[in-house]
Specification:
outer membrane lipoprotein receptor (LolB), chain A; 264 residues; 12-stranded mixed β-sheet; single chain; 14 strands
């Protein structure tokens, strides 16, 4: 297969993923160095993640679960004194892995991790310069390494040129992910595809933009952000994944805690 065909095949295979365990490493704007391991299920959309970031929570470990429209948070970064003896707090409505405007993690996840890695892994199909780099071993498995650059204009063109509904929907989802990551111009993407034609790892690098102001009548200003360099490795694909809500009696509701902390 040509590089374009191989990348398209991997994207089509990713669309058939129903569950995934994966690892995230790299540098994320405003969060610093980040390490995370997560498990997700696509129907219903459910996710559990353990992460730590040098720029947030003092590097402490944090665990998040998205189950049945609610988010549950636990870990060293949580102020246990505010939880009235509970180990978790709950916030809702919450959503993960949806399109740009439907995600809601209350700022406890980087926006780059609010998107589904299944969608992100297919974004290279919108590149016009996909090329084969060579063969490499990833987690003990032989892979072929591909590389290219992606822009929002390229994703839009790929969406318009798609000849089938599935490919068009992948590009629509990819455009939402591109926008959510606040990328400034071009995303450089590497993709490692196993001998079975499946994505094994991908890496995304690019400059980002940030916003400041907009409060108390201040004008909203768009400024240069920090660089993004994030690598996601697929560990287990379509294996059983269970993400459960914590016990009710070990959970404190964020809304109720906020009400109690408000001055009379």
């Amino acid at each position: 297969m040509t590089p374009v065909e191989a990348v398209a095949k991997a994207a089509a295979d990713s669309a058939r993923i129903t569950s995934l365990r994966y690892r995230v490493t790299g540098s994320v704007p405003e969060w610093g160095r980040l390490n995370a391991e997560a498990s997700m299920r696509t129907a219903p959309m459910t996710m559990g993640m353990k992460l730590n970031a040098t720029g947030r929570y003092g590097g402490d470990r944090l665990e998040l679960r998205f189950v049945d429209g609610a988010m549950y948070v636990h870990g060293d970064a949580v102020d246990s004194a505010k939880l009235k003896g509970a180990s978790w707090f709950r916030a809702e409505p919450a959503a993960w892995g949806q399109d740009l405007f439907d995600n809601q993690s209350f700022g406890l996840l980087p926006r780059q991790l609010e998107g589904s890695p299944v969608v992100q892994s297919a974004m290279l199909t919108a590149a016009e310069d996909v090329r084969r780099i060579g063969t490499e071993t990833v987690d003990g498995a032989p892979t072929t390494h591909y590389k290219g650059t992606v822009t929002s204009e390229g994703i839009g063109a790929a969406r318009d040129a798609a000849t089938d509904k599935a490919a068009r929907e992948r590009q629509i989802d990819g455009l939402g992910q591109f926008s959510a990551m606040r990328l400034e111009g071009t995303l450089t993407m590497d993709l490692w595809v196993g001998d079975d034609g499946r994505t094994k790892r991908f890496r995304m690098r690019g400059d980002t933009y940030a916003s400041r102001g907009g409060a108390d009548g201040e004008p909203l200003e768009i400024v240069d952000g920090e660089p993004l360099d994030m690598t996601i490795t697929f560990l287990d694909v379509n294996e059983p994944v269970t993400v459960e809500a914590p016990p009710v009696d070990d959970t404190a509701d964020l809304g109720e805690l906020a009400d109690e902390m408000r001055p009379d």
